[in-house]
Design a protein that fits this description.
The complex is a heterodimer. Chain A is mostly helical. Chain A is built from twelve helices and four strands. Chain A has a two-stranded antiparallel sheet. Chain A has a two-stranded antiparallel ribbon with strand order 3-4. Chain B folds into four domains: 1-88 and 164-174 and 193-262, Rossmann fold, CATH 3.40.50; 97-163, no CATH class; 299-396 and 483-572, P-loop containing nucleotide triphosphate hydrolases (Rossmann fold); 409-482, no CATH class. Classes of the chains: A mainly alpha, B alpha/beta.
């Protein structure tokens, strides 16, 4: 059985694989964002952090020839910006929205400038070997096997982190403190929790995860860097965090649905469905807006989201 | 920790000469406090007396500017709530420190030491038995948001005790409780005392303090104003103890008079003019008023010369009626309970009460700002219940909040914008779409001149002005709308003498013109000076209404603290 001249099974596998690969960086960034928001930090700098992760990850991988160094550089870049975000919003109590947007603009400008400066107008691609790792047995399952179990290491890590984050948030002391700090910092402080420290740690995690998500794009997936290559992925992750209600499993679900919608759009184009491309590429974004609209009023934001905390001021 | 708080024969906590300043406000001025194990120690005082500040200092929330704290004889620095808890001091605040979307168990575990992975199982059994012991029939896994206020309070106490707390600070613990819950809380505190816990009960409810305390410390205007030890408290003569405490809190016993910084500038500035218009009531009982009492409202009294005759026999024409009003406060607890009141044309109706007994909510109900859950509001016989602020304003009800800078004005906006704000959608400030900047500016200039507001100009952000000038503008804004009913919540707080006089005079004139002024105030002398009738609020009810002639600070203070009406006072 074929579809548009392509074997159906192959078509489905390709769709699924593309959807999951699109979902992976969203999962990474959104998991970090969930921890940040649970602690009361709304990180609108996530886009700039992803771009920085993508650029520095790409550059490091290009210079060293090692994907591992690339990913580590991406994490470092994101962490650095996450720390900057915390210094400004937690310690200096600058408005989180302003700082976040500034970091996003900064990240876009910095990476564009450095990319031109370092690579001088060439557009190199990485020639490294981020070989796919086929999981024995599982990768042989028809249709889904090749899509889910024959991917890069970072792909597996992204999805493996979902239960890890769920466990940390729900079942560890740190997670409890994060939730308390985001919901009612005064209470957390009175109970002896160091609100500042927890928020710094959460910002660091959010930054690092955004950085690694960016590195996923440039190092693991596309193997190139392009100016502004994240094209709003960070903001999508932000929306998915809310759609997923700050719950790692629901974030995973939302990210996969988004990824599949996007690959479906591409698939429809490939098999020549006669719809304008603009409409098809809009699909996943419309999906997000519909989801957000449906969930409006049903989700409960962390009560102290966006609110700086100062002891003695209530 | 607990063992360090040992010997029952020495205080566990000694606070010496604690001073704490917030900007220009001296919240604690060389306050000292000793706490003993196995005792309930009530800290009494009016609002603003510095009770909560003192407690926050001990709980590690605030750092004192000077003074020392010793725990079991050892000087300590409590630089965070965690540090205080480690020393065995735990606080239960009026605003509970429980995270609503976490379970009881998680709230107890929050901040406790332990490994990375949260193992709640061992704590669960302990919490469950404590909950049962405290009469709470809920699972430790219940989220806090599903609990009633009284239950949350018990969870707070359990939290402190499980963290090793041996000194338990409670800030107005009964303000959120029903009378039945109050009784069982007091029983619980007695039990904790018997287990050797030092319980600090910060309250302004005298009855409760007398019922359970072994020791009482009275604060007034940020200073120690009295101490009663166990010998006095366990003495047989409740009435004399009560009278003594009331005198120390409100009265003008010689010691308190020299102590009272909020009053001491008044007598020196204002000469003592003879009373201008003694009412029948007063001339009959000249001795009711102390000769040394400051007549700081002399001007206001001059001004109300002519209508004063009318004041004694108010034109019994009701302008505004409240019928069996009940409403909820900001935290969802009942704030007003079945309250009825008739306001008569031409009167200033004063409302006395300790903060948090429903005065603010009453003002907001009249202003249309707070919906009632039952009951009716009638303006000149027409039902205006729950019609909202805009309708109330249109119908001639004005409201001046006590929160000048947040609720009353937009600090960053200009004087002109703020003056126009309440009627910004109407002529002359607007034709429905475009603003008439010139009309706004003219109005601002007119009010600035008329009310003698000190401002560089109408375009200055209102937040740059002093509190007194903001107050004048807010009052001017309301008066310019020519309200029939004007509610003012603490309009003279923080104002200098001249501005105070001015505000009082404006209110008096407003009433003399046949309107109603409702004045909520904490300065009892001032309230007595200006009001025609005075109502006392306690626990969301008007517990007494009396003509001015029958009011004096001691009587009002007694009623404000939940005391029974003395028989010799007849109801108005």
């Amino acid at each position: 059985m074929t579809i548009g001249g392509i074997p159906l099974a192959g078509f489905l596998t390709a769709m699924l694989a593309a959807g999951l690969v699109a979902a992976a960086p969203l999962v990474l960034a959104a998991l970090g964002e969930a921890v940040g928001e649970r602690s009361g930090l709304l990180n609108l700098g996530i886009e700039g952090m992803m771009l920085s992760g993508a650029f520095f990850g790409f550059t490091a991988a290009y210079l060293t020839g090692s994907a591992v160094w690339g990913v580590l550089a991406g994490i470092a870049a994101g962490s650095l910006l996450g720390t900057l975000f915390a210094v400004l919003t937690v310690s200096l109590r600058v408005d989180q929205v302003l700082v976040g947007l500034a970091i996003t603009i900064f990240g876009a400008g910095l990476t564009a400038f450095l990319y031109r400066d370092v690579f001088g107008g060439q557009n190199p691609s990485l020639s490294l070997d981020t070989s796919r790792i086929a999981i024995p047995g599982l990768s042989q399952i028809p249709i889904i096997g090749d899509a889910m179990f024959n991917q890069s290491l970072l792909f597996y890590i992204a999805f493996a982190l979902v239960p890890v984050f769920a466990f940390v948030l729900a079942r560890t002391r740190f997670g409890l403190q994060v939730r308390a700090v985001g919901a009612y910092p005064f209470a957390a402080d009175a109970a002896g929790v160091n609100v500042t420290r927890i928020r710094y740690q959460a910002a660091l995690i959010a930054g690092a995860m955004a950085g690694v998500a960016g590195a996923f794009l440039s190092v693991a997936d596309l193997k190139i860097f392009q100016i502004g290559m994240t094209v709003g992925t960070g903001f999508i992750a932000l929306a998915l965090t809310m759609v997923g209600g700050w719950n790692p499993y629901r974030i995973l679900l939302a990210a996969i649905l988004f990824g599949l919608l996007r690959s479906l759009g591409n698939g429809l184009q490939i098999i020549g469905v006669n719809v304008r491309t603009e409409f098809i590429t809009m699909l996943p974004y419309i999906g997000i807006m519909v989801a957000l609209a449906l969930l409006a009023g049903k989700t409960s934001l962390p009560a102290a989201l966006g609110v700086p905390y100062a002891r003695g001021r209530r | 920790m607990a063992q360090a708080l040992g010997q029952p024969n020495s205080p566990v906590v000694e606070m010496r000469d604690i001073t704490k300043r917030f900007g220009p406000v001296l919240a604690n001025d060389r306050v000292s406090l000793d706490l003993w194990p196995g005792e309930i120690h009530a800290v009494l005082g009016e609002n603003g007396a510095g009770k909560t500040t003192l407690m926050n200092v001990l709980a590690g929330m605030y750092q004192p500017d000077s003074g020392t704290i010793r725990i079991a004889g050892e000087p300590v620095r409590l630089d965070s709530p965690a540090a205080a808890l480690r020393r065995g001091i735990g606080a239960v605040y009026q605003h509970f420190t429980l995270v609503p979307n976490l379970s009881i168990l998680e709230n107890v575990a929050l901040g406790a030491e332990g490994g990375f992975v949260l193992d709640l199982a061992p704590a669960e059994a302990k919490v469950a038995s404590m909950l049962a012991d405290f009469g709470l029939d809920v699972s430790p896994r219940t989220e806090i948001r599903h609990l009633a206020l009284g239950q949350r309070q018990r969870v707070e106490i359990i939290k402190v005790l499980l963290r090793g707390g041996r000194v338990l600070l409670l800030d107005e613990p009964t303000s959120v409780l029903t009378p039945g819950e109050v009784q069982s809380l007091l029983d619980l505190l007695r039990r904790l005392r018997d287990q050797g816990v030092a319980v600090v009960l910060i309250t302004h409810k005298l009855g409760e303090a007398l019922a359970v305390s072994d020791r009482v410390t009275i604060l007034r205007a940020g200073r120690n104003a009295g101490d009663l030890g166990p010998d006095v408290m366990s003495g047989a003569d409740r009435e004399s103890v009560r009278a003594r405490i009331i005198a120390q809190m409100f009265g003008s016993s010689p010691a308190a008079e020299t102590d009272d910084s909020s009053m001491d500038h008044l007598p020196s500035v204002i000469p003592t003019p003879p009373r201008v218009i003694p009412t029948k009531e007063e001339s009959r009982r000249p001795s009711r008023r102390r000769p040394e009492e400051p007549r700081f409202l002399a001007d206001a009294r001059h001004d109300r010369g002519a209508p004063a005759a009318a004041r004694d026999e108010p034109t019994s024409e009701t302008l505004l009626s409240l019928r069996n009003i009940s409403t909820l406060g900001d935290r969802g607890a009942p704030a007003l309970h079945d309250l009825s009141l008739d306001l008569l044309r031409g009167e200033v109706f004063g409302i006395a009460g300790v903060d948090g007994n429903g005065q603010k909510e009453l003002g907001e109900v009249i202003a249309g700002q707070r919906p009632v859950t039952s009951g009716r509001v009638l303006l000149e016989g027409a039902d205006i219940t729950n019609r909202g602020v805009a309708a109330a304003t249109r119908l001639g009800i004005g409201y001046v909040t006590d929160d000048r800078l947040h609720e009353g004005s937009v600090a960053e906006s200009s004087v002109a914008d703020n003056v126009a704000l309440k009627s910004i959608g109407r002529k002359p400030f607007s034709n429905g779409f475009w603003l008439n900047r010139r009309a706004m500016e003219q109005q601002a200039r007119r009010l600035i001149a008329e009310f003698d507001v000190k401002t560089p100009g109408p375009h200055t952000p209102i937040g740059m002005l002093s509190g007194g000038n903001i107050q004048k503008l807010l009052l001017a804004r309301e008066l310019a709308l020519e309200p029939k009913v004007l509610v003012c919540n603490k309009p003279t707080t923080g104002l200098d003498l001249r501005t105070t006089q001015f505000v009082i005079r404006s209110l008096r004139e407003q009433a003399n013109a046949g309107n109603v002024v409702v004045l909520i105030a904490s300065e009892l002398d001032e309230l007595i000076e200006i009001s025609d009738r005075i109502g006392v609020m306690y626990s969301g009810q008007l517990v007494a209404v009396m003509p001015r002639a029958e009011a004096d600070p001691e009587t009002l203070g007694h009623l404000m603290l939940g005391g029974a009406r003395r028989p010799r006072k007849a109801s108005a």
